[in-house]
């Protein structure tokens, strides 16, 4: 079945461009458009898209709040949010990731990257290079705890190896790089990542990276 996509951006010209790119793909169907966050919520309820391509800065309701409502506990469907931004270090991106977005993409990204991002997010994975997560969190470290606060009890549910894996995810390593670093197979790493997400109640490795910083397990700027 085709991946159902909702386009959310306050610029009609950009929505038209995205539609042209995505509708050229046999496995993607653009089911609707919205010009702000409030319209997006209505469209998500009505159209039940698989992926919402979400602008951040919009009138009436911005993309961060819309993302929070679409992916939150009261959500009406399985829609995943891929955030669009003009700048690769937009402070709102951090908030959108914390709100439940599955990743972000620059608006000027090549067409093939947009298409691939839609497919990756639709499959349940996170579309965000861990190294970019690190850059974002480092740049906006003032929004995060100082590290003096006690670590949350949920961290104690992880095994020592799972804590190691979580630290490496937060520091920008891919599954293959983690496998090489720990001298284990990539399949084993995927298993550990899955256990971390389940135990901490997180949806993907993006939220895991944010959690690692917020909990004080990894300090901004630490190597």
TrEMBL record:
The organism's place on the tree of life at top rank: Bacteria
Record keywords: DNA-binding, Phosphoprotein, Transcription, Transcription regulation
Entry-linked InterPro entries: CheY-like_superfamily, NreC/VraR/RcsB-like_REC, Sig_transdc_resp-reg_C-effctor, Sig_transdc_resp-reg_receiver, Tscrpt_reg_LuxR_C, WalR-like
SUPFAM superfamilies: C-terminal effector domain of the bipartite response regulators, CheY-like
Location of the HTH luxR-type domain: 151-216
The keyword DNA-binding appears for this protein: yes
Modified residues (4-aspartylphosphate): 55
Domain Response regulatory positions: 4-122
Coiled-coil ranges (or none): none
Protein name, per record: Response regulator transcription factor
């Amino acid at each position: 079945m085709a991946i159902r996509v909702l386009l959310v951006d306050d610029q009609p010209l950009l929505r038209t461009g995205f539609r042209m790119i995505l509708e050229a793909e046999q496995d993607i169907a653009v089911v609707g458009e919205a010009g702000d966050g409030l319209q997006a919520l209505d469209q998500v309820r009505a159209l039940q898209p698989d992926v919402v391509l979400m602008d951040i800065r919009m009138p009436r309701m911005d993309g961060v709040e819309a993302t929070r409502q679409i992916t939150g506990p009261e959500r009406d469907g399985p829609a995943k949010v891929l955030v669009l931004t003009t700048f690769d270090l937009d402070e709102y991106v951090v908030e959108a990731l914390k709100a439940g977005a599955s990743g972000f993409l620059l608006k000027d990204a090549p067409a093939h990257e947009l298409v691939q991002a839609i497919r990756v997010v639709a499959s349940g994975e996170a579309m965000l290079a861990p190294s970019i997560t690190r850059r974002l969190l480092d740049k906006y470290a003032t929004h995060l705890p100082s590290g003096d606060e006690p670590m949350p009890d949920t961290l104690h549910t992880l095994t020592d190896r799972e804590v190691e894996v979580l630290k490496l995810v937060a520091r920008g390593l891919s599954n293959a790089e983690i496998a090489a670093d720990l001298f284990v197979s990539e399949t084993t790493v995927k298993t550990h990542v899955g256990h971390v997400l389940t135990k901490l109640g997180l949806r993907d490795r993006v939220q895991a990276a944010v959690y690692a910083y917020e909990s004080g397990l990894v300090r901004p700027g630490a190597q």
